[in-house]
Design a protein that fits this description.
The chain is of the alpha/beta class. The chain folds into 2 domains: 2-238, Rossmann fold; 239-269. It is built from 7 helices and 7 strands, in the order βαβββαβαβααβαα. It has helices at residues 11-21, 75-96, 131-150, 177-182, 187-199, 222-228, 242-265, and strands at residues 2-6, 27-32, 41-43, 61-64, 100-106, 153-159, 205-210. Strands 3-2-1-4-5-6-7 form a 7-stranded parallel β-sheet, sandwiched between helices. α3 (131-150) links the parallel β5 and β6. α2 (75-96) packs parallel to α3. The longest helix is centred in the C-terminal third of the chain and has 24 residues, at 242-265. The termini are far apart.
Length: 269
């Protein structure tokens, strides 16, 4: 199987590139906006004219990790590097006969659910709270269009939190309290999940959570297990100090409980 990874020099991209390169039956090449010291990782700016699409020839699966990954990304960057770039990539992939795109989506699609109790899966209405989250929603929905209209298999993986620091070990050092810890994704589970998405059979379109099996989390992994056969091997319960628990409860009171109570009591206000 011939796999191309965009963002192959990045935090997740290089881990996946090296992992797949060691697997029997895989040929792997990569694209990255910066030069990478590897003969099979080439320079490409997805916001520019798509001369980079020449690398799509004879590719079976594209894993699209490139883009602005910062939650605080500006609208300008989110449009150029996430929305427009991914739309062009879908067009080029369909034109070049690529079978599947595995898209790096994000848990920020459900950013408005942080202080709620909702189970989070593909049926949960999205609620992005920033330009980054909105750009990932756009990339998912355009992926659905290309699946329906052009026969391009698109699997959108809503990737959890794989840290740059702390050797990616979970714990109370992670930001965003319980929410942050419960979306933890181990390196091993990231690689297993992406391998499953690359090799899964008979999937036209899917939006799937990719976290480790963390006890008590609200991200539902059952669909991921059923659709692509993902079997996480790691998991960690959140450890939330009292100070963070109080802070989280206070935010939930003012962002969820009080507004919903007011709306119920005064529906015509």
């Amino acid at each position: 199987m011939h796999v191309l990874i965009t963002g192959a020099g990045g935090h997740l991209g290089r881990k996946l590139f090296d992992f797949l390169a060691e697997q029997r039956g895989f040929t792997v090449i990569g694209l990255d906006i910066r030069p990478v010291d590897h003969p099979d990782i080439h320079v490409a700016d997805f916001g520019e004219t798509p001369d980079w699409a020449r690398h799509f020839e004879n590719v079976d699966v594209i894993v699209h990790l490139a883009g602005d990954r910062e939650p605080g990304a500006s609208w300008e960057s989110s449009i150029r590097n996430n929305m427009d770039a991914t739309l062009t990539l879908y067009h080029q992939a369909a034109e070049k006969g690529v079978s599947r795109v595995v898209l790096a989506s994000s848990n920020w699609l459900h950013g408005d659910k942080r202080f709620s109790d909702e189970v989070l899966n593909s049926q949960t209405p999205p609620g992005p709270v920033n330009a980054y989250g909105m750009s990932k929603l756009f990339c998912e929905r355009t992926g659905k269009y290309f699946a329906d209209m052009h026969g391009l298999s698109v699997i959108c993986m809503r990737i959890g939190w794989t840290q740059w620091t702390h050797d990616n070990q979970p714990g109370p050092h992670m930001a965003m309290g319980r929410w942050g810890q419960e979306m933890w994704l181990s390196d091993q589970d990231f690689l297993l999940g992406m391998h499953a998405a690359i090799t899964a059979k008979n999937v036209s379109f899917a939006t799937l959570n990719l976290m480790s099996d963390n006890p008590g989390m609200r991200w539902d992994l059952e669909e991921t297990k059923r659709v692509i056969g993902y079997q996480p091997r790691d998991g960690a319960a959140a450890k939330v100090p009292l100070s963070l628990a109080i802070k989280g409860a206070t935010k939930r009171l003012f962002t969820q409980i009080i507004p919903s109570t007011f709306e119920r009591l005064f529906p015509m206000w």
